[in-house]
Amino acid sequence: MRTVLVEDDPTVRENLKTLLSIYATDCQVIGEAGGVKEGLDVLRSSNPDLLFLDVEMKDGTGFDLLSIYGKLDFKVIFVTGHDTYAIRAFKYSAIDYLLKPVDPELLVSAIVRAKESIDLKEQDLKVTNLVRNMETDRSEQRIVLRDSENIYLIDTKEIIRCESETNYTKFFLSDGRKLTISKTLKEYDKLFEDQAFFRAHQSHLINLIHFDRYEKKEGGTVYMKDGSSLPVAVRKKEALIAALEALK
Question: Fewer CB within 10 Å, N or C, the chain?
């Protein structure tokens, strides 16, 4: 794969080149740059298959570079520091990223996924969503969901609830759709922790903006605005009330 590195730290760039030469010998580094402007010039002149892109650079961000470049005709793997918000944005958009310092095993895994993912249109949608999410209020985020046949771009506020089905999660949306995604409920519980979602039960994650009422009798039941009802774990009752109070 013809590979370009855009990273403003020369040490990180050299380390990445070394790792590629050892663990990914089919990745030929054909260009490198230390910033947005220089990176654009390299990309436009080199026609790469794969780009390793730093998030924060002295003359802008990796998102700036992609926005200016336009429609992507190469795969992108982001390289970033420990920025919790940025990492969550990557996960919302189902985009690969590597934390600095780069772990060789994770590097190889990311490259394998880049090779297997041949749909540049899908990647373009994911990157567009990533840039939008980075520029949008956290309550207005969109998430990329993919099942066995389709890829979906969903506003998180349209998610009524999520239900665990072993290693899968079923999403119930406000338009009546139900999507079954091959990730665990635990992963989405963690991903949505900065929004109005609440883990009411081991098997249920609810979006409190769609909450209707809580019935205390018979162990406790939550009713959602779409008419659905689900149990509340005994140990979650007080936390649910506190979460509802916090929304006011």
Answer: C
